[in-house]
Records
---
Amino acid sequence: MIEVIETDPDLAALAPEWAALWQRCPAATPFQSPHWLLPWWRQFGTGMPRVAVERRGGALGGLLPLYILPGERKALPIGAGTADYLDALGDPAPLLPQLLARLADDPVDQLDLIEVPPWSRLLEIADIDWHQSSPCPVLTLPDLPAGIRRKLRMNRHRADRAGGWSVETADAANLHASLEVLVHLHQSRWMAEGLPGVLADPMVLAFWRDAAPGLLAAGLLRLQLLRVGRVAAAAIMALLAPGRLFFYLSGFDVTQSFVSPGTLLLGAMLEQANAEGRTEAHFLRGREAYKYAWGAADRLNYAGRLAPPRASSAR
């Protein structure tokens, strides 16, 4: 049975089943979990969810979460803008026609499926004209370029001489304080370049303060700080899934750049991920040079556009 959820309370009530379905989908990333998408909806939602769910024997077997952006007369995946991978859970083939039929009665002229990862089953739907979109560089572990290994050794020696260095991992007791350190380092770093940074947006900041506790409790969040002496010199927030690590947000103290604190912390997190048996580190959207210096290679997301039946017949 397939139904389309259309209210905020019904969407929130889906959380336990949604989390269980996410656990059963090995290819899913944290961006498909309710621990990410429900806080996103609380901050950015329009009050018009259109979430197709399929039940098999009473259990949730598939989910495709969309919403209506009425001012632009379009539908988008829930999570658009903050999530680097937007995807369905389970088989989307039976879900999409139901959603399109429902959208035909809404103020919607188009459905934009964006940031669809290259492993998504959405790409199996042949009547969508897919095109490549954002690059998301991925590092295969444990491979690190020799130049990076030399740089790590050099900067670790410098940090040792500057008072030593250590890595702290946020837990439930200190998550709020650690998150505020990340916010400060992130904003200070971008202000030094005359740019606002993503956390200058109060809605994005509110999203993270809302989402971080649930993500941590679910084992999907790793927030680590690097201290040089007693100074918090760098912070990195990453998301976790089986076999994979997703680097999402970072910041560093520009006054500590002589030891490359961001490099030190990134190296420590990659070593930890490798020791845990993770095989991939995702640097997510963007072709920043440092990602390729670490040995990452591009994987391209996809995008496609559809029109609801009413919009199609009107043209």
---
Amino acid sequence: MAKIILFNPPSRDKVYLSTNVRAAAPSYPNLTLATLAGHLIKKHDLRIIDLELAVDYESTLFDQVSSFNPEVIGASASTPDYLIVRDIMRKIKRKYPHIRTVVGGVHTTALPQEAAGEACFDTVVIGEGDTVIPEMLEAPSLKDVHGIIYKDRFSGKTIATPKRKLLPDLDALPFPAWHYFQLNKYKNSRLSSRRNPVGLIETSRGCAFECSFCNKLTFGSNYRAKTPRRVVDEMEYMLKCGFKEIHIIDDSFTQDVRRAKEICQEIIRRKLKFVWSSLSGVRADKVDLDFFKLAKKSGCWQVAFGIESGDQDILDRVNKKITISQIESAVKLAKRAGINTFGFFILGLPGDTEETMRRTIKFAQQLPLDIAKFDICIPYPGTAYYNELKKEDRIKSYDWSKYICHQIDQPLFAPSNITWDILKRYYKKAFREFYLRPGYILRRFKRSLIAGDLIYDTYYFMKSKW
């Protein structure tokens, strides 16, 4: 039995709280770490430390390391928080060189050699790494563990093992180990939730579509799904753990809309009473009115759409494979079923001009959306867009901590048809022109009165940067 610490880096402040979307900053216990823990709890002694909740994260972490004396410390890194994970691991290595450090996540999967070049990382995980840590602890040699780059302890050489295969059966995954988290510490705003604490669930992995701005390296483009019964079993387990609301974070929850309907029907059949939303952005071409009605009946209060642009040529260029008319129809169907609508839009997409961005803002205004979120198209490593910009020498910064889709102060890349200053102006313009419309304010005021959200909405309005 090994002693293991998994930590979640303190990135919420930089990624959300200091940006234009701070009023809706999410607060969830980390699903990735809970999922990893599910594979470890039966054979190993484990602690999960969420440094987002710490007042002094260094003291919190090192107090735990000192008292627990782990053999392994692991973390998962996205691009915006990769550097802080690296810096924390450097401090760990300086003070505790004997501890084996493991890092995985979307950033290390996209740029494994960069991470492998860091002395603070003993093992770098590439791809879907659910069972890597238990395999490392049980294998006769690390060379037998696929999907990693590790440093040989004797020679110091960096060794890469063969590519890891994707998990074929998601139903075989253990339930995430939520008992390692203090759920009452997590609170989402009323903009994104109805009841706290809110828990995340993945019902599928992989996305069959290849949008140029999206990284598919971890879970791949092969769509794999949990069965409806397994999904609702997990939801029921989450409710018993103490969650009051569930958010589905699949790349495409309605990829198989028949399966999505069966999940709703199973919730209804079991008479489970909870609220849920699909907050990652469902595809407009993969829904119908029957789905929305079943979703509403089963407790869905809000659904998000990955709309991206209001210009068809831009949608085609980024390989979105949906049409403007499909988007209009899907959003209207959701509203017809009585579900709140949330639209995700991206500015600075490949080919965007001032005119196409104006169309996007106007399109957002025309749709019956309760909330719209506008982001800058960040060329994250592992995406086709990143590869295109790098090849053309148009990436202006490799400071990964700046790779935040709400960050507009530092030019990260050179857009093709506009300047960074123009992109910044349209980013601010989009929020103002969507939310400061008299018609929207009146509609939101009426909705807030009915829902009892007037105080909340007033607070969020005052907190936003216009």
---
Amino acid sequence: MIRRTKIIATIGPSSSADDVLAALIDSGVDVFRLNFSHGTRESHAEHFRRIRQAASKAKRQIAIMQDLSGPKIRTGPLAGEPLLLKEGDTILLRSGADAAVPGPPARVSTTYAELIRSARPGDRLLLDDGRIELEVQDGSPDELIARVVNGGLLGANKGINAPGVALPPSALTEKDVEDLRFGLELDVDLVALSFVQTADDVVRAREIIERAGRSTPIVAKIERPAAVRNLEAILHAAQGVMVARGDLGLEMPLERVPRVQKEIIRAARLHGVPAIVATQVLESMRVEPRPTRAEVSDAANAVEEGADAIMLAGETASGAYPVRAVRMLNAVICDAESMPSPSRIMPIVDPTGSRHGQALAEAVVTLAATSQADAIVAVTSEGKTARLISAMRPSAPILAAAPDARVAAPLALLWGVEPFITSERDVERLKIDLVGRNLVAPGSVVVFINVSPEQARPDANFLHVCRLS
């Protein structure tokens, strides 16, 4: 059985060795994530080199996604032991990078000064993934006075979420801009943009990419309520979305997250945009050799909802069982895909930029089903045809014939798509190429499709069904 839903693995200390990378690819990883919230540019460059080398040895198109850290709000450093905050304590939160000072009142810093300026009395602040809760009592331009609602031990550089606080919309910090330019120099295949709130955030990142002479696809991470409200516009601007459930579950009522996940995936499919489900998918496998039953059900539900990809984070970056986690996710996805596929959703947006692309794509899906085709071969120069067909969830696997690695590699994210590089565009020569590469077996029924806005070209805009000899 061919797995359609893709697997993304985050690279880190547990997964950076050459033999582990090879095992991860062999176990089913389609995309590797470089998390720029951690590590150095030098370490990311080394990881990039190792991934490319491992993918080349495996003879597979493996995408590399740069994940920018974004304006993540964090506490500052500590001078010593973790700070014990008790219910009812008063805490002073100041802008800057000073080390925390024990109370009373305890003093904690944050380098994100906009939080200090934007929070108002009554606002809730959630620290360290929500383990500690504060309520703002009063404040000034440089300091907030807050009461500890739920206490605990506070370590250094822990995340702060401010549900309901109106923060500045820009998702790109100065660090992100420099990191993005660095990633483009490396030639990453995808860029994930953290804490997107509006389509303008995506547009700004796109401008930086285009000035670098690239067309790298952008994945907008949906992790704030503003992004959910502006989802329609974001889907028009981005080439992918990620349901980043960690911060999303802190920025909005937790019970809403499952419904919002379904809404994001459905909207993405309508726009022909790939959707990734992320955060705590097999979280227990960071320390345990087996996931919980709830985690397995969660991953299977993401498949049923029609996600293009499921992402592992700490499980592969720093967990004790990175390869086993990928194998488990692969097994869960394959079993979930053995059930009848979700209802087909016809995209309302045609990424091919033609008036006839949608009609040709619908025709190829129908033709593949009625002829019981073994594969659909999408001849694509920019990847748009493969993206459109993938969004329609055909029963046959999709082989994307791309002209080079920059087009082929990002297609590894798409549901049901297996990209390969070829200079051939003629169907007769492509038939020979497919069999010669063992992409399809002799005797297979294959449907070819090519979509182009140039209607005058005789070698464009065709459907062709045949049995390979």
